[in-house]
Amino acid sequence: MSLACGIDVGGTKIAGGVVDLDGVIIEELRVESPATDAEAIEEAIAGLVTQLRERHPIETVGVGAAGYVDKSRAVVLFAPNVAWRNEDLKGELEKRVQLPVVIENDANAAAWGEFAFGAGRDAEDLLLVTVGTGVGGGLVLDGEVYRGANGVGAEIGHMRVVPNGILCGCGKHGCFEQYASGSALVREARSLAMSGAQIAQGMLRRAGGDLQKITGPLITEAARDGDAGARQQLAELGRWLGEGVASLTEILDPEVVVVGGGVSEADDLLLDPMREAFAGQLVGRGFRPIPGIRKAELGNRAGLIGAADLSRR
Amino acid sequence: MSLACGIDVGGTKIAGGVVDLDGVIIEELRVESPATDAEAIEEAIAGLVTQLRERHPIETVGVGAAGYVDKSRAVVLFAPNVAWRNEDLKGELEKRVQLPVVIENDANAAAWGEFAFGAGRDAEDLLLVTVGTGVGGGLVLDGEVYRGANGVGAEIGHMRVVPNGILCGCGKHGCFEQYASGSALVREARSLAMSGAQIAQGMLRRAGGDLQKITGPLITEAARDGDAGARQQLAELGRWLGEGVASLTEILDPEVVVVGGGVSEADDLLLDPMREAFAGQLVGRGFRPIPGIRKAELGNRAGLIGAADLSRR
Amino acid sequence: MSLACGIDVGGTKIAGGVVDLDGVIIEELRVESPATDAEAIEEAIAGLVTQLRERHPIETVGVGAAGYVDKSRAVVLFAPNVAWRNEDLKGELEKRVQLPVVIENDANAAAWGEFAFGAGRDAEDLLLVTVGTGVGGGLVLDGEVYRGANGVGAEIGHMRVVPNGILCGCGKHGCFEQYASGSALVREARSLAMSGAQIAQGMLRRAGGDLQKITGPLITEAARDGDAGARQQLAELGRWLGEGVASLTEILDPEVVVVGGGVSEADDLLLDPMREAFAGQLVGRGFRPIPGIRKAELGNRAGLIGAADLSRR
Amino acid sequence: MSLACGIDVGGTKIAGGVVDLDGVIIEELRVESPATDAEAIEEAIAGLVTQLRERHPIETVGVGAAGYVDKSRAVVLFAPNVAWRNEDLKGELEKRVQLPVVIENDANAAAWGEFAFGAGRDAEDLLLVTVGTGVGGGLVLDGEVYRGANGVGAEIGHMRVVPNGILCGCGKHGCFEQYASGSALVREARSLAMSGAQIAQGMLRRAGGDLQKITGPLITEAARDGDAGARQQLAELGRWLGEGVASLTEILDPEVVVVGGGVSEADDLLLDPMREAFAGQLVGRGFRPIPGIRKAELGNRAGLIGAADLSRR
């Protein structure tokens, strides 16, 4: 039995898990992330691997990390939340754990997880769209993770969808993630509530009258309970997602689109408006297959599972 | 010596050529295109192959056709200008010419031509952007033509760049090709001239005062002669191209971007503003390699050469 | 009893009517418009006045004309549909009819009609928005028709609402009337039907399957009958209208907004979505009175009645 | 000789001045503004009037205040920076100073100042556009201050110019002042400098490498010294201003447009690009007079002078 260790380096936690050939996590551990200290993070990763290895015959290690990873799956060119700059993470970790290590961009790893064991396991091409704080993306094309020429592709959240639009943290205006992320959902819901609009009062009441307590999960819960304002906000988010993914589909022609991230928990309250907007924005409707839009199945473990599995390949 | 025949099915002409392993066209023939009569076009293609074959030991045939081609490189799902609907073009042609035939989308074929023998021959990934009547695109990713899950990818001209924007022939609003094509260039230049703007008077004079005679080649020629209005129009087109290709680069991370099509004849009068806008719209400048933007080298023979070469693979 | 004659110069008809002090039309006549022949139109107007005068003691004549009218209410600077260029229309007509004549922009005249006798008769400020082929506007401010410094104000249809938006006949991109007119309504409904969208099939069936027969009145009738697609289209038009009129309200702070033109026949199917979008786009909600949005009351006679009444002032 | 007292209530200072019939300030005093304490501000105003009155035979008092002022020029409906809500400011002040008092919106007062004694003294209609932290506006139409039906007009900064655009402090997206204010100028210049763009390095050097020290005056000074990046930024601001004022001109048809506020100090480096964009966005060029665009002449004393003069009328 070939077991692999998957590591997911998040902003606050590092998760490590032992993953079997069916994508099942046999054991999982979590530690606090030593934040921005690059070396400490490497130590923590090695510690997790060492612990898991005591109980499981791990043969390889796959690490999913936010950031630009070079094509050889070894070097982190740049990580937004960690002090890695041209860091030979593969080398550093192999020195410590004496096992073969591969490094993957976390969204690519998650796309692979969904492709191999989740919502896309019947597909050959897959576009993963994660709707969380931002909008992330991962591509599997022709059965392979697509890494781009420089390891910096699939940054779909920074496709420009509105010229002169909302300012993005990246410095550009009008990025997709400013309209289609969970942060956008919350921003617009709060703005509506603040304006005194009647339709937003249900959400505001649930938040105890405190605008700052209007969150993604609160909106989703309200929508599930039938709150009209919350449903409208999710539908608006779905519309932006569908229109953006239509542009991506003109370019990539994926077999299936998988939607993950926290906001995907809203299920069809988000996905149905997304599907409608998507279908309405595709060229050549009637002469082309229209990719299905599905909810992700592996939740926030997709990256860990995908990274582990990719380390075996 | 392995020779292949490449066929380029255009709206008014069908070109056929014998292409060697270095991408050189040894002989080329052209016939009028029997327009929309699907069977007559097949006859015409077979006729070209037969003629060329009399003088050259052709082993395979590659056909570049505008439209959606299925992944098996056999069936034209839909062609905008020809009456092909789910047409087994490969089967029909093989029956007639008794040689192995492959069908390729014309932009994909052109991308391969530039990749194998043209502006991208040193690269492993390439995005071809053709700026003509519309904006077309072809992708070579990791050394392979990217065909998408359904053969309908790389339609970059229909990425939406302006919500509620200019109406496109496809029925959508705000498609990239409404802002970044040769047609857009001419439309805006005529509109400016009609408005009586001083800066457009040079172009209008060259056109003998006839708005309809302001064409892409006229604008390019005027710009080369230093006409300020023509240069401004090309720069504006370049800006849209650069900004759109920046979005594509966030998604695809190509190694190199090759610009073809008639308007690319304007060279750096188009490409320099494009490069500037492109660089200004990329996330993570400073931490990523920035793909070069180059002019295509094979002109309007890229598709023929590419189709021929792909038939050998 | 002071009677005035009102003239409405339309593209295909010229209407003349005798209007009393209560804005009631006592008698009305119509003749074909001699189209673009400026002098023939003047003859036709004089003919109408002469006929009406035989039966009614008319004291003044007011002419409503599409185009730019100078501030002295005498000269047509420019008319889009008639060959008037700096035409002293007042002088020409007074020579012919030997009565005092005033010339008014037709939308201004209609705004005055609604202000004096129609939906705004209780108000002191009024913004008239006519939703027809284009979007027209007329202003009554502080109880006076607002004519602008040069007689060319209140052209609200050419406020830009979408940068790089839909091309307008005027040569600009993104004009309000490209989104909020009856023409926009029809264009979008046809486009939706052409795309094969399920929701548009009801409209298409009513049109006997002929896209060109989807018209404004057909959409309104379908919407009244409960057709979801037609209602959606009217709601979308209402949204654009409401958002545009919100911008106008930030600038003009009218007491009341009156909506006329053919599409206003859709009543609250248009006006309710307009009101909702309007209220949602006003700054300082809660600290300011929100102008009411009302349907016009005088139909297509507002201009004739208004022009007549203005000639008495 | 009829002397009036003008009061300008700013965020940090309250200015009071004695203004003669020629708009000349004979004496001016300033005190700290007691910020948000409504009554203390009234005391401070009364104190200024009392002091000035000891030396000058003041007959009336005009107060310019940011906020919504009712049409009777008495009540502040809402002030963004002071705790006035439906405050009878006229009544409160008249009780204290025993002189006739009128209250005016500050931008209206400034428009009147420029109209009566400044850049518009030869005009009958005037649109004042102040380009500072935000974009403010004041209208004089047919020789009278235009106050709107509810005292809340001329808020041109909140005309929407980009659907789904940059978030405004008012809660809406895409307001004019997010693109055409001094704040927008600084935001974009800093963003450009942060991105590492070569063209912004001159501004950054002047700021000693500190992004936060790139300010409006720094940009203007750099532009005057020929810095290409600063000139580009001012030209971009001018373009937005010109395009927005073109929309306003379609609506209002002013005789003259006066540009004030801090950024207007950049003179033709701002106004020339504004004029060019303005002329390029007007309907019916060639058939209409094009309003001149002029720099304001009274600087930040326009409001004080205008308020004083309006109190005499």
From TrEMBL, chains A, B, C, D:
<dbReference type="InterPro" id="IPR049874">
    <property type="entry name" value="ROK_cs"/>
</dbReference>
<dbReference type="InterPro" id="IPR043129">
    <property type="entry name" value="ATPase_NBD"/>
</dbReference>
<keyword id="KW-0808">Transferase</keyword>
<dbReference type="GO" id="GO:0005737">
    <property type="term" value="C:cytoplasm"/>
</dbReference>
<dbReference type="GO" id="GO:0005524">
    <property type="term" value="F:ATP binding"/>
</dbReference>
<protein>
    <recommendedName>
        <fullName>Glucokinase</fullName>
        <ecNumber>2.7.1.2</ecNumber>
    </recommendedName>
</protein>
<keyword id="KW-0547">Nucleotide-binding</keyword>
<keyword id="KW-0067">ATP-binding</keyword>
<dbReference type="InterPro" id="IPR000600">
    <property type="entry name" value="ROK"/>
</dbReference>
<keyword id="KW-0418">Kinase</keyword>
<dbReference type="GO" id="GO:0004340">
    <property type="term" value="F:glucokinase activity"/>
</dbReference>
<dbReference type="InterPro" id="IPR004654">
    <property type="entry name" value="ROK_glcA"/>
</dbReference>
<dbReference type="Pfam" id="PF00480">
    <property type="entry name" value="ROK"/>
</dbReference>
<dbReference type="GO" id="GO:0006096">
    <property type="term" value="P:glycolytic process"/>
</dbReference>
<comment type="similarity">
    <text>Belongs to the ROK (NagC/XylR) family.</text>
</comment>
